[in-house]
Design brief:
Number of strands of chain A: 16
Oligomer: heterodimer
Distance between the termini of chain B: 41 Å
Number of strands of chain B: 12
Strand content of chain B: 25-35%
Shape of chain B: globular
Shape of chain A: globular
Order of helices and strands of chain B: EEEHEEHEEHHEHEHEEEHH
Radius of gyration of chain A: 22 Å
Structural class of chain A: alpha/beta
Number of helices of chain B: 8
Largest sheet of chain A: 16 strands, mixed
Helix content of chain B: 25-40%
Chain lengths: 407, 259
Amino acid sequence: MSQQEVRVPVADPKNPYAMPAAMPSSVDRQPRSFDVDDFTVPRPKDPDWRFTPIARMEEFFQVFQASAATTVTVSNIDGTAVDPERVRVGDVEMGAEPTGTVLAPSDRAAVVQWHSARHAVTVAMSGELDQPVLVKIHGNGLDLDAVHLVITAAADTHADIVVEHDGLARLAEGVEISTGRHSQVSTTFIQEWEQGSKHVGNQRIHVGEGASLRHSVVTLGGDVVRIRMDQDFGGEEGDLNMLGIYFVDPGEHIEHRTMVVHNHPACKSRVVYKGALDGKGAHATWVGNALIEPNAPGTDSYELNRNLVLTPGAVADSEPNLEIENGDIVGAGHASSVGRFDDEELFYLQSRGIPEIEARKLVVRGFFGELVEEIGVPAISGHLMKVIDRRLSRGENEAMQHVLEEK
Amino acid sequence: MSTLEIKDLYASVETKEGRKQILKGANLVVNSNETHAIMGPNGSGKSTLAYTLAGHPKYIVDSGQALLDGKDLLTMTPDERARTGLFLAMQYPVEVPGVSMTNFLRTSKTEVDGKAPALRQWSKELNSAMKRLRMDAKFASRSVNEGFSGGEKKRAEVLQLELLKPKFAVLDETDSGLDVDALRIVSEGVNRAKENTGLGLLLITHYTRILKYIKPDVVHVFAGGKFVKTGGPELADELEATGYDQYLPEGANSESALA
């Protein structure tokens, strides 16, 4: 028998497209680590930071002494105490279980938060909850602070949790979310920061086998808010639904990055982020990554971002990225748009006696309302609509406020 | 009693080929309780007149006035005109996604009246108005005009006319695209609004069909950007028989004449 030489294909670094299968995915190349030195301080041209005003958040790139001024309280959404049988609230040292169990920091800001936070608040949910859990995170000033929150749901849990941020803060926040097999969970994060606040967040999310997670983010205020969300699945048939709503005022930078990873077969992901921008220097950024790994056949993924520019001078960056490494999938779609307020709609509403400013509010409320309804948990969507109306009816007289708030 | 007086109105529109004057000295007086039919060939400027009165940003007033009880509408924003008492039923009502009809109607009513309507009475009024126009109750929860058929959109326009109770209404080809039943229902709504509030009507149309249901007191021929002839209801029948050709300048192409 003669020996035959077998040539193993090797990717040519000068021409990666010659051998696409051997191309490393860009997400793979990024480090995941708890070591600060594994990440360089971001520079304006770094792909992950090119939309971010780095100079306005450079204090978040070096490990700091956290002020511990931020208060974190956990209750039911109606204010009553949680049932300790089904919602266990704890406080642990950083590094102790369950912290650090969901993925690992993915950028410099995330690893700095990990080392700057002193302890973590943990919320472990199990069974069937009667009403949503509310975590209130209240900022008490501009001294740099870091908080860490770990939300876990045991197998078969049915639970909803809302995390509200308000007050004045410069906050580095780490959130770990892990849901068990066949659980059905919704997590809703609301940012209603006072003017002057900064919030740099990293969320690490693990969706259990056959579990469904509805993950919503609503950002309505803050000078600089940048939230990066990294996610993966724990088994087949996981279902992830990420909804986002943001409202950007003049001079604000509001950024959301959703990094969805399909690493198991037959999982489904939907990412829908919608934002309205108002005024000069209002800057929104949405970057949505969806990575479908070779071992994830049957993946069904879709991501969408829509921006509504209400007045000239606002800037919206919208960047969907798809990396598909498996051809045997149900779907991988994306859509992205930045649109101006429609003049014909405005004229129609005005011709019915509605002043321009009210007309704009009606349209914006409608723009978000469709998304809020999708959340499907009445207690949460009602709560969200109230939050959005509060934002929209700023400065309204009482009678009009009443009209705007009642649908 | 109210009066709407259009005085020597000139207006233009910005086109790709530059600014083009459409209205060329329109004059008209309409009083409460009067119905004026405005008829004319395509491209004569009838819709421009309607949109200019309502304040659409596309149309630029070159000179002239439109006085509602002495107040010049043309110096007002579109919403101020509506609150002063003008209503335009559009030929192509605009879809406003995400804004429910109920919410829209109540906001509009609140603005036009200057105060929020009493809730119970309002929903009663809304429901019965919808019922009279044979509109399904589901309409109220749908987004404004979104996914409505042509006929449904026109009914929704007349619904607003009935609820907002303006002093003057311009109906821009409200009859176009309606089948016989819908035309009757819509016309009944307009007649009801007039009976209840005594509003003055400007009825823009190509065809005499709608005039069988909404009886005009005065019929005008509008051509070349102005009113060229005025008469009684018999003028409409005359137009039906002879067309608009005689009102067009020599050599002009009338689309309706060609069709």
